[in-house]
């Protein structure tokens, strides 16, 4: 059974930084795009960004220039480096191991809470 585990969340002040990790017990991890999403209370889930198998990241407009996604395929782990955090970044952050074909299954983690205080 594939497990996806996020870690690194916590409480930080405005302007601070956090690094989230996403580790998946999945073979061929390197072939899968990894997506980070977040959901704040009362709001819809928002895509933060994605890193593809070629290690090329793309970001949502709200985090561009502040967040960085990377991956270490040798560790089956992806990272979300968050800098210049704002109160509005407060959310549960989720990692998804995306499918690459209609026959693939995508896998989600249970999320990690990030709270930014003013």
Description:
There is one protein chain. The protein contains no helices and eleven strands. It is mainly β. A hairpin with a 5-residue loop joins β5 and β6. It is globular. The N and C termini lie far apart (40 Å).
Topology, please?
Layout: E1 4-7, E2 10-13, E3 18-24, E4 34-39, E5 46-51, E6 57-59, E7 67-72, E8 77-82, E9 91-97, E10 107-108, E11 112-117
Parallel strand pairs: 2-11
Antiparallel strand pairs: 1-3, 3-8, 4-5, 4-9, 5-6, 7-8, 9-10, 9-11
Question: Which features does this protein show?
Answer:
single chain; 7-stranded mixed sheet; 0% helix
Briefly summarize what is shown.
The chain has 118 residues and is an all-beta fold. Helix content is 0%, strand content 48%. Strands 2, 4, 5, 6, 9, 10 and 11 form a seven-stranded mixed sheet that branches. A four-stranded antiparallel sheet has the order 1-3-8-7, with no helix packed on it.
Tell me the series of helices and strands, N- to C-terminal.
Answer: EEEEEEEEEEE
Radius of gyration: 14 Å
- β content, as a range? over 45%
- Low-confidence region ranges: none
Residue-averaged pLDDT, rounded?
Answer: 96
- Distinct helical segment count: 0
Structural class: mainly beta
What characteristic shape results from the CA principal axes?
globular
Largest sheet: 7 strands, mixed
Termini separation: 40 Å
Estimated helix fraction: under 10%
Number of strands: 11
């Amino acid at each position: 059974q594939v497990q996806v585990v996020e870690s690194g969340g916590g409480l930080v002040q405005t302007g601070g930084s956090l690094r989230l990790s996403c580790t998946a017990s999945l073979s061929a991890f390197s072939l899968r795009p990894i997506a980070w999403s977040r959901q704040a209370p009362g709001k819809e889930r928002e895509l933060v960004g994605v890193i593809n198998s070629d290690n090329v990241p793309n970001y949502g407009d709200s985090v561009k220039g502040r967040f960085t996604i990377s991956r270490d395929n040798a560790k089956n782990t992806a990272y979300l480096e968050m800098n210049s955090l704002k109160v509005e970044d407060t959310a549960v952050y989720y990692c998804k191991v995306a499918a690459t074909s209609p026959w693939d299954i995508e896998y989600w983690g249970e999320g990690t809470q990030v709270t930014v205080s003013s």
